[in-house]
Structure formats: C-alpha cells, structure tokens
Specification:
The complex is a heterodimer of chains A (468) and B (496). Chain A has 468 residues and is mostly helical. Helices cover 75% and strands 1% of the residues of chain A. The chains are: A mainly alpha (468), B mainly alpha (496). Chain A binds chain B through residues 315, 318, 369, 374-376, 380-381, 384-385, 387-388, 391-392, 396, 399-400, 403-404, 406-407, 410-411, 414, 418, 421-422, 458-459, 462-463, 466, and chain B through 64-69, 130, 133-134, 137-138, 141, 145, 148-149, 156, 160, 163-164, 167-168, 171-172, 174-175, 178-179, 181-182, 187.
C-alpha cells in the first residue's frame, strides 16, 4: 500500500487542466478563447493516453487502498475522456467566442474528473468526494444559458442534487458508523456482522444518491428539464458522461454488500422503474431534447440490469462496460444531431431531413435505432449481454422486462425517425433553409459510425473489458 | 464463398449510396447485374454442394465475434438453408428486373433492396443465434423503409404496424435465444452446438417457456393465426416488389426458424407442444382460406392465401413432433414437404404479387369489381396470372402440388385428423378460380378498358418464377435430394 500518487496521473491531468482552463481563460481575449479549447483537447487526449498506458499494466490500488486502478477504472477513464472530447466538438459550434467559453471548459473538466473519481472509488469517502466533484460543476453548467428554462433546470438540478447528496452522505455516515471503516475491502468483511436494518437503510441512501448522478429513478426529475433547458453541449455532456462514473460506482458498491441485504432486488426495482417510467414519459414529448432526456432515464434502467447480476454472473462487469461504451457514443450521436439543428425544437421540424441532409438523417437513424437496441449497433450488444447476465444471475424475469421495455421504446423513437424519412410537407418549407452546424453534424456522423463499428467489433471490446 | 454471397449485395448497396452522381438507369441496371451475379455465385455453391455430415454444415466459415458470450460469425448451408438461399437469390433478381420501370427514387430503392438481399441471405446461412437475430431484426428495418418509402395507400400506418408487431416478435425470439444460451453447458449461441446438446431436455417447464418465446417470435414473422393481423395491411400498401420479397423471403424466416431452431434445439418441448402447433397450423389453413375467399381486393386476397400456405408448413412441422415408432418415414416426408412448400410459396406468391402490382400500376386499384374481361386487352397478363393462380392452388405439375402432397401424406399418416385441413385446398381453389373469372373473363369493362399488357420487364420477372415452379413440379428430384437428408436428420433430432 501507500500513496502512489502517480497512479492517479489521468485524474490529476484532468483536474489541473481544469484549473489551467479557468485561470488561462481570464488572460485570453474572447476571440482567442479557442486556445483554451485546444488546451482542453490536449488535456483530454493526454489523460486518455496515460489511462491507456496504465490499462496495459496490472490492477493496483492507490492512496492506501482507497482508489482502484484496474481495468474498470481504466476503461472508465478512457470512455469519460473520449465522451468529453466528442462533447467539445459540439462546443466548437455552440459556445465558440461566447462570454463563458473557458469557464465551460473548466467546469467540463472538473465534472469529468469527478466522474472518473466516482468510477475508481474504492472507499466511501472517496465516493462522496467524487459525487460532489461531479455534481457541483453541473449546476453551473446548466445555469450557463441565460434562459427561463435554463434557470429552472439549474434550480431543479441543484435542489435534487442537494437532497440526494445528503442521502448519499447519510448512507456513508451510517455504514462507517456501524463498521468503523470506509474502505470497501474492510467493509466487505465487517458488514456481515452489522445490523441488517442499518445496512439496508444506508444502501438505499447511497444507491439513490448515485441515481442522481446516473439520472435514474428515483432521482431522475432533473434530467428531462436539464436536457431541454441547457445548451446542446451541456445537455449532451450531462446525459452521457456522468452516468459512466455513477453506474460503475454502484457496481463497485453493491459488491461490498453482504447477501443478507436484498440489494439485488432493490437495484432491480430501480432498473425496472427507470426503464418503464422513462419510456412512458417519452411517449408524447414533442421536443426532441426532452424526448432524449426521458430516453436517457430509460437507458439508465437498462444499464442497471448488469448491476443486479453483479457477483452472480461473470458477464455482469464486461457487459456493463460494453453497454456504457455503446450508450456513450450512441447517445452523443443523437444529441449531436439536435445540436447540429438547434432551431429544430419540434419533432415535426425534422420532416424531410433525409432529403435535405442525408448524412445527418442517417446518423439520426443509426443513433435512434441504436438506442432501441437494433443490431448490429453497440447498444444491441450491450442490451443482449446485460440481459443475458441478468438471466445468468437468476433474474430471468428482468431480462424479459428489458425486452418488453425495448418494444415500448421503439414507438417514440419511431415518432422521430418517421418524419425525418418522410417527404417534407408544405408547412415545412420554412425550415428547409436551415443548414446544420458543421462540427456538430460531423460529430453526429462520427459518433453514429463509431456506434456501428463498436457493435461489429464487440469481440475485442469485450476482451478489453473482461481482462483481469 | 458464403460471405461473398451475403455481403456482395451490401457492398453494392453502399456503393450506390456513396455515388450520388450515378444516374437512375445505371443504378437500376447495376441492381440487376449484382443480383444476377449473386445468383450465379449461389449456383456455384449449389453445384459444389455435398451433403454434410450429420449435424454439420457445408461451406462452413467461422470467425470469432464476441467470444465472451460464445457468439461467433458462423456460416454454413445444409439441406434446409441451401434451397432457401437459392430461392432468395432468384426472387431478388426477379424484383430487380421488375423494378427496371421504377420511376420513384430508383437508386435508393436499389440500395435498399440490395441491403435486404444481404440480410435475407445472411439469415438463411447463419449458424449462430445472435447472427441469425441480427439479420432477422435488420430485415424488419429494411422492409419498414420499403413499405414506408415506396408503398401506397395508408403506407405510413401499415409500415408502423408491421414494424412494431414484428419487432415485438423478434424480441420474444431473442428472449428465447438467451434462455437457450443460459441453459446450455457450456454457454453458447452456436446453432450446431445447441442442436447437438439439446439444452433444457428434462426441464419441461423451462423448456416449454423458452419454446413458447421462440414460437411466438417465429409465429409473428410467419405469420400464423392469431399473429397474422399485420400481414394484410402491410401487403396491401407495400409496393409490388416489396410484397414479393415480404411474402417470398421474409415470411420464410419464420418457418425456417421452426426447422432450424425450435425443433432440433428443443426436441422434448417440441414433442410436448406438437399438438398446439398442429392446431395453429390447421386453423391458419382454414381461416386463411376462408378470409381470403371473402376479399374483394386481389392483393389482400393473395396476402390471406399466404396465411393459408404458411399454415400447411406449421401443420407439417407440428406433425413431425408426434413421435411414434413406425412413423419416422412419414414425419420425414412431412418435413420435406414443409421445406418444399417454403420454396414453392416463395416462387409462386412472389410471382403473383409482382403480377398484381401491374393492376395498381395501370389503374390504381386492386378491387376485383373494378375490372372485368381483362383477358382481351391483356392476354399475357391473363395467362401468367392464371398460371400463377393454378400453381398456388396446388395443381399437379407445379411445385405447390409436390409440397402439399408430401405435407398431407406425412401428416395424415401420423395424425389422420389433420385431413380436415384439406378443406383449405378446396377453398383456395374456389377463390382463385373466382378471382380469375371476375377479373379476366366476360365483357371488357371498367378499368380493363385500355389496359396495357405486360411490359418485357414484367414478363421476365414473374415469368421465370412461375417457370421455375413448373420445373420443380415436373422434376422435383434434384430439390428433394437436397432437402430429404436434412429432414431425416431433424426428425431424428426431434425423436431424441
């Protein structure tokens, strides 16, 4: 054991990069803020490279065993940094040379650091730090747009975050109180003797708190508002990247719990509630961003399915990581399409898109069918393997629920695809002149292509995710 | 070789999409050329085909795909898949020829159909459940765009209904596949391995549930009563080539699943539930025929005869599950008949849908009442349609007769009560004769006046399909020689 701070090089790079962006931004004139964007890109690429180097090495622990540097953390670091990188491409259209450009980058990097810390936390206190570090920048990011919707969304997120943050901290307090330790390794041993009621209450608090970061039931209320009210860049980021850290954190945490608590059932209930509620609520949305917001709530439900099988099926962890990777690129592709057409705030505005912008429409098609789980996209592989993991872990009914919900979700995604591939009616002529923003459109196409490629190359991806 | 056959059309489709400057005429002809080339490759495979060892596949290809869940890119053909692969290639070539006259976005249409061809061929040669599912699902997506993009009438609604209904079925199928995977030891999605292992044997409840999930998935796609309600609107509003592919190829994905997946992998459950399959088959036969009889819309009528024809297949594969000591021969005949019926129905109904498309092209309606005496202005059309109708009702000398004769020989020998399904043949004969009479005979009236006869592309698309069905009807041996060993093998597996 020991501190071994070098193991945390990617996290340090991200955090120091955030500080650099914040300070550097105040010295760079507004027209030159793109320099900060370049700095952010460099930081993210460097963090990915450092993470990749460590991924090749053996699993280790840093900071007296409170932080795991293993395959899971490595994959999470790369996914999180890569996701943020794709989000930055959207920023190049939306917030270039705006008043809060460098601050946005700084906040994105802080939130990214927090997400990675969540994914690597092997200690309740580190978990709490990661939670706060990932959450607080988000409030600022959502509030950056100066609109009524944005303000409401920021307020809602802040209140939800405060409430569920307290729940999380309460859970942490209870567990450390009854066991006298906070590291997962010790908790695993001592929790078997701890009073079951206290452990159960703490489990509910911690898992619910993490659901705020993941954006799933019961802490999902902020997601649709934030997706709708925030800017395109921020909406894409907060519905995609923090989920990676939060879900891995839940996975690591439940492995600590003794079999006397029925945590699997609790997670299964959260999963079913998230996917069902997200799907039903998405049905009649007319704003594409809000629709996607609800769709991400349902995706969290699907992503929780392998967590249920944690410790019961060998497929659980690799399937979770593969699904996270697929979800990240697919969801970014879908959001990038809306970011490329910021004026299209109604599903009907997408009428005839296939005719006018075939590539963008194709990206939308791949992204939305991908989110449904149509093969051969990466989310299909994720859904298939997570459902298999659940069945393998004696939760066959959960696998059935996953596919029933998949059918439910198809309907609202089709509500968006159908107009895009139908001929434009007379009423749509007005929007025909709108040309998509360049960087966002490219990001959409690239992310959609990646989602296809990741599905086809699922074998190597799986190999990477399941190495010890 | 099989990979080339499967992905050649897809590569051509991508090329068509990527070359926007290509004119309409080159795009149409490129489609014909690629479909013809693919058919030539399939003929090469057929010529080089040798019966694989029991439980094995010919022209096998295998590469790792997702080794973590034991799913591989595994292709191969046997006596069940080879005839369907050949039929698929023939039907898509016929569609390519038929679409030479297409005026509505021909380049996109060609690309979409080439995509569908890849997907359909891939499904029939897949030897891995996940690979099978990938193609199964993509066929739905492709057909959705065919109906929504090139259909007529209430196409958006019909396409949506088709998509939602068959997608639901496909997910039921996937649940069943996962059940098979989890039950198998070691866990695998490989079809030959699962057929050899027969997981869930000795667990009647779990086996029954997994079979139920798979049967629902296949029954929706086939479709059998009571899951057939998506079919009539989809066919009515689909373009002619779309209907031909839907009826000729996509429906076979369901029936192929019975003999490829359900029977060999879940033999015990199949035997236990054989009577359910038989009853569903008989009901589909009779109900499909009676409802078809009540139609006034020619295309809708043919759509319902598909329900009837698919019923014969369900009947035969159900009868194959009634295992008794001295009926092995009869059950093998029934299964052979079922697979022959898949090929025969594909050719004949494909041709009929192409021909019926002519009605809409010329006069914009499929209503029988809108025509009369059409034989006078359009003799070629009348001849081909009459030939198709007679072939479809099971007249000797056509493939349909060979198929249905074997189905009934086998099924009645195993379960005499199935003879009541013969009523279906009688009703089908009546309805086809009535349709031919109302549309083609009598005084030329209504939309028949000034009706243009078939163009060369229409003759050369539907004609060869009917000719092929005639050839199979007269010389069935080459086809049956391929199918029979596979039938004997699957009957042996079900009897385990």
């Amino acid at each position: 054991m020991g501190m071994r701070p070098l193991l945390l090089l990617p996290e340090m790079l991200l955090f120091v990069g955030g500080l650099g962006a914040l300070i550097g931004g105040s010295f760079v004139p507004r027209q030159r803020q793109w320099l900060i964007r370049v700095l952010t890109v460099v930081v993210l690429v460097a963090a990915m490279a450092a993470a990749a180097v460590q991924l090749a090495g053996p699993a280790q622990r840093a900071f007296e065993g409170t932080y795991a540097v293993d395959t899971t953390t490595g994959v999470a670091r790369i996914l999180v940094a890569f996701g943020t990188l794709l989000v930055l491409a959207l920023a190049a259209d939306e917030i270039a040379a705006s008043a809060r450009e460098s601050e946005t980058y700084a906040l994105l990097l802080f939130a990214t650091t927090g997400t990675v810390v969540l994914a690597g936390a092997d200690d309740l206190l580190v978990l709490a730090v990661g939670f706060l570090l990932a959450s607080i920048p988000l409030y600022g990011l959502i509030g950056l747009v100066n609109t009524a919707n944005g303000a409401e969304a920021a307020m809602k997120t802040y209140l939800m975050g405060a409430l569920f943050g307290i729940l999380l901290l309460l859970g942490v307090t209870i567990l450390s109180g009854v066991t006298g330790t906070t590291t997962y390794g010790d908790l695993t041993d001592r929790l078997t003797q701890a009073p079951a009621v206290a452990v159960a209450a703490a489990t509910v608090g911690i898992v619910a708190g993490l659901m705020f970061k993941a954006g799933g039931v019961p802490a999902h209320f902020w997601v649709p508002d934030a997706a709708q009210g925030a800017g395109g860049t921020v909406a894409t980021f907060l519905t995609t990247v923090p989920k990676i850290g939060a879900l891995i954190a839940v996975y690591r945490f439940v492995l600590v719990l003794p079999h006397t608590t029925s945590w699997a059932l609790l997670v299964a209930i959260f999963a079913v509630a998230s996917m069902t509620l997200g799907n039903l609520a998405a049905y009649w949305q007319t704003d594409p961003r809000r629709l996607l917001g609800w769709s991400t709530v349902s995706q969290v439900g699907f992503l929780l399915v392998p967590v249920v099988a944690a410790g019961r099926s060998d497929l659980a962890l690799p399937s979770l990581l593969v699904y996270l990777a697929g979800y990240m690129v697919t969801n970014i592709a879908a959001f990038a399409v809306t970011a490329a057409l910021p004026e299209h705030r109604e599903l009907t505005a997408y009428g005839g898109l296939a005719r006018r912008r075939p590539w963008l429409a194709a990206a939308l098609l791949v992204a939305l069918l991908g989110l449904v789980g149509t093969p051969p996209t990466a989310v299909f592989v994720g859904k298939l393997t997570t459902a298999t993991a659940a069945w393998d872990g004696d939760y066959a009914w959960l696998a059935v629920v996953v596919f029933v919900n998949t059918v439910l979700s198809l309907f609202y995604y089709l509500r968006w695809i159908v107009p895009a591939y139908r001929h434009a009616d007379a009423g749509m002529v007005a929007t025909e002149q709108v040309s998509p923003l360049r960087w966002s459109a490219r990001t959409a196409v690239v992310a959609a292509a990646l989602s296809l490629a990741a599905g086809l190359a699922a074998g190597p991806l799986w190999q990477l995710a399941s190495q010890q | 070789m099989l990979s080339l056959i499967v992905f050649l059309p897809l590569a051509a489709a991508l090329a068509l999409v990527a070359l926007p400057r290509l004119g309409d005429a080159p795009a149409r002809w490129a489609w014909v050329a690629v479909a013809a080339l693919d058919l030539a490759l399939v003929s090469v495979v057929w010529a080089g085909y040798e019966k694989p060892a029991p439980g094995g596949l010919a022209f096998e290809e295998r590469a790792a795909w997702i080794p973590g869940v034991n799913s591989s890119y595994h292709l191969g053909v046997d006596g069940f898949s080879l005839p369907l692969v050949a039929m698929t290639a023939v039907i898509f070539l016929a569609c390519a020829v038929y679409a030479l006259r297409e005026r509505h976005r021909p380049r996109a249409q060609a690309a979409l159909f080439l995509f569908l061809q890849s997907v359909s061929l891939g499904l029939f040669v897949a030897a891995d459940l996940i690979l099978f599912f990938v193609f199964f699902d993509l066929s739905i997506v492709g057909m959705y765009f065919v109906i929504a993009g090139w259909g007529h009438g209430n196409r958006g609604h019909s396409a949506m209904k088709f998509f939602l209904y068959t997608f639901l079925g496909s997910l039921a199928l996937l649940v069943g596949f996962i059940g098979l995977y989890v039950a198998a030891e070691p866990h695998t999605f490989d079809m030959p391995a699962l057929a050899a292992a027969a997981p869930l044997a000795g667990r009647p409840l779990a086996g029954g549930l997994v079979l139920a999930a798979i049967l629902v998935g296949l029954a929706v796609k086939t479709p059998t009563v009571p899951f057939h309600t998506w079919l009539p609107p989809a066919h009515t509003d689909a373009p002619a080539v779309g209907s031909a592919v839907l009826a000729g190829v996509l429906l076979k994905m369901g029936t192929y699943g019975f003999v490829r997946i359900a029977m060999p992998m879940l033999p015990q459950a199949w035997r236990a539930w054989a009577w359910v399959v038989i009853v569903v088959g008989v009901v589909s036969v009779i109900y499909g025929a009676l409802v078809a009889l009540a139609q006034t819309n020619v295309k809708r009528m043919i759509a319902y005869t598909s329900v009837n024809h698919m019923g014969y297949i369900a009947l035969a594969v159900g009868a194959a599950g009634l295992v008794a000591a001295d009926t092995t021969q009869a059950r093998t005949v029934a299964v052979t008949g079922a697979v022959t019926q898949m090929v025969s129905h594909g050719l004949i109904t494909g041709a009929l849908f192409l021909l019926v498309g002519v009605l809409h092209d010329r006069a914009g309606t499929y209503e029988m009442g809108a025509y009369g005496g059409l034989a006078a202005p359009a003799p070629a059309f009348a001849t081909l349609f009459a030939v198709g109708a007679f072939a479809s009702l099971g007249l000797p000398a056509f493939a349909g007769f060979i198929a249905e004769f074997q189905i009934f020989t086998g099924s009645v020998a195993v379960a005499p009560v199935t003879a009541i399904a013969l009523v279906g043949i009688l009703v089908t004969a009546a309805l086809f004769l009535r349709a031919v009479q109302r549309v083609f005979t009598g005084k030329t009236r209504g939309n028949s006046v000034g009706f243009t006869d078939l163009s060369p592309s229409e003759i050369w698309s539907a004609g060869p399909l009917l000719l092929l069905s005639l050839v199979i009807g007269i010389l069935p041996r080459p086809l049956l020689d391929v199918i029979e060993p596979a039938s004997a093998a699957v009957v042996g597996l079900v009897g385990r």
